[in-house]
Each structure stands twice: as C-alpha cells, then as structure tokens.
Amino acid sequence: SKAVTAPSLLAMKSAGEKIAMLTCYDASFAALMDKCGVDVLLVGDSLGNVCQGHSSTLPVTLADIAYHTASVARGNHTALLIADMPFGTYATPESAFDNAVKLMQAGAQMVKLEGGAWLVETVKFLTERAVPVCAHLGLTPQSVHQLGGFKVQGKTAEGAERLKADALALQEAGASLLVLEAIPTALGKEVTDMLAMPTIGIGAGPDCSGQVLVMHDMLGVFPGRKARFVKNFMDGQTSIEAAVRAYIAAVKDKSFPAAEHCF
Ligand code: KIV
Ligand code: NA
After folding, report:
1. Phi/psi-derived region of residue 150, left when phi > 0, alpha when psi is between -120 and 50, beta in every other case
2. Mutate to test the pocket of ligand 1, among 24, 45, 178, 229 (most ligand atoms within 8 A of CB)
3. Are β-strands 199-202 and 133-138 bridged in parallel, bridged antiparallel, or unpaired?
4. In the chain, N or C terminus with fewer CB closer than 10 Å?
5. C-alpha to C-alpha distance for 232 and 137, rounded to whole angstroms
6. Where are the alpha helices (DSSP H) in 5-53?
7. In this structure, what DSSP letter does residue 252 have?
8. In which residues is Mg(2+) bound (predicted)?
9. pLDDT number for residue 222
10. Which among 23, 27, 19, 33 has a CA at the least distance from the CA of 240?
11. Residue 56, exposed/middle/buried by CB under 10 A (0-12, 13-18, 19+)?
12. How far is the CA of 12 from the centre of ligand 2 (A)?
C-alpha cells in the first residue's frame, strides 16, 4: 500500500477516516504492525517505562530514541514513523533542530514534542527547516514532577481554555499533528473540531481524528494497574497479529475508545 504522510493524515481527517497509531520499539513489531495496516508508528519515550523499566520517561536519552527509531525504520514500510524528542532535548529552537536531525537521520519522518505556547518558536524553527512536528498536549508525562502525578488535564474552564489556545498556537506555528492525552471527552471533541490538523487521542475520547496506545498496554503486557484509557486487545484473540488487527479495526469502526476508556 501507499506510504502514509502528513498530507494523507490530513486527508483522512477530512474524509472522516480514523487514524490508527501504535507505539513501537523494534523491527519485528514494526513489520507486523505495518503488515496489519497501522497508519502511524510512534517510537515513544514510553520506552523508558516499557523497555527500560523506569517509572517515568525522564531518563530516556536521544541515543535511546535514535537506536529504537533505526530499528523500527528497518521493519516499517508504509506507516508514518514519528519519534519522540526526549526530556531536555528541545529546550531551545537550535538544540531542538540539532537533535531532531539525529532522529530524522535514524529514520523518523516527524518528531513529537510535549508542551504548549512555549514551544511556538521551536515548532516554527523546525517546520521551516523541513522537520515535521507532532505536538502533545494534556497529560504530558515529561512534566510529571510539575503536574504532581499522572492526572487528567483540562478539567477546569481555565485549563481547557489554555489547552485550546496552545493547540491553535502550535498549529499556527506549523505543527501537522497533535496528540491529546488524558483530557475530558468534550474537550477532545472541541479541540479536534476547532483545528485543521488531525488529533490523536489517548484517553481523550472517541471524537479525536485517531487513537494511539502503547503497544505493551494493548497486548496486555504491563506489570502495574491498567490505566483507564487502556484496552487489552489480546482478549479473545489467539495471536499478536490478530490483536493488532482488532485494535486497528476498533479504531476505524469507532468502537474504541468506549465510554469506560474515557474521562
Ligand atoms: O511515549 C509515548 O508512548 C507517547 C504516547 C503514549 C502518545 O507519547
Ligand atoms: Na511520549
């Protein structure tokens, strides 16, 4: 099939076709997910949790993400490949660009950054220099020590207004995709309807342009308690491939996320 690109994701939003995204960290899973028809693969800094066993994403380095991105790129053919920029690697526009180049050279086709209005200059700097950007708002795990834990965001009127203003500013700066994590369903819909760029939800309700889950979570491989937005797609399946196909189908037919996965 044809390569997924930033413009083709925009066309999917316009056509009302939901975007199915998964995190991925190695070549074998990339090949499997790509074969199943996943639209977007994310080398998330969640690898700090699921691959390295840390309790946050803060210890993940640029070299870690570059290593996993190169591995995923070798297995992937069609999906759009996004790499997370780790904590502390995009404090200034110049450092963000230098670090993004390393991830693009490892095979990323877009980079993801966590944060709002403070990133406007950086997003502009990157996109003017041919680095496509996915923004990330709501629960931004790199800010866990400022947020005071992994909590739902945008619940107050003030918080919701700030998130909407941030989303518009990031789009204006050149972002082409926006991950929304752990926000109320109504806010997820409002932001999605307001923006031209597609939104990808994780605990942001069924009205986002697409959905993302951490691979280990959707395969039921997690040691701790299950987050509300997680669904184990191995339930009722007899292979990992069938579970990945079930996830993609559930995103496309809008049966995932259900109310029980939303805030
Ligand atoms: O690191 C990650 O896996 C992510 C997704 C959960 C959006 O940022
Ligand atoms: Na991440």
Report:
1. beta
2. 45
3. unpaired
4. N
5. 24
6. 6-15, 27-36, 47-50
7. H
8. 45, 84, 114
9. 86
10. 33
11. middle
12. 23
**Contacts of 63 by beta carbon, 8 Å cutoff, 6+ apart:** none
pLDDT of residue 227: 93
Closest CA to 24 of 76, 87, 95: 76
| 193/237 Cα distance (integer angstroms) | 34
The torsion angles phi and psi of 245, rounded to 5 degrees, stand at: -65, -40
Per-residue model confidence as pLDDT tens digits over 197-217: 999 999 999 999 999 999 999
- Mean pLDDT score, 155-179: 98
Which pLDDT does position 136 carry in this prediction?
A: 98
- The neighbouring-strand residues paired with 213 are 22
Q: 225: pLDDT confidence band, cut at 50, 70 and 90?
A: confident
Cis peptide before 93 (omega within 30 of 0): no
Lining ligand 1 with CB less than 6 A are 23, 42, 44-46, 84, 179, 202, 212, 214
Please state whether the peptide bond connecting residue 257 to the residue before it is cis, i.e. omega within 30 degrees of 0.
Answer: yes
Q: What span, in angstroms and rounded, lies between the C-alpha atoms of 61 and 103? A: 11
> Which tokens belong to 15?
């056509």
Q: What is the pLDDT of residues 90-102, one digit of tens each?
A: 999 999 999 999 9
Contacts of 182 (CB under 8 A, 6+ apart): 138, 139, 150, 151, 152, 153, 202, 203, 204, 229, 263
Model ipTM value: 0.99
**Residue 181 annotated among the catalytic residues of the structure:** yes
Predicted TM-score (pTM) of this structure? 0.98
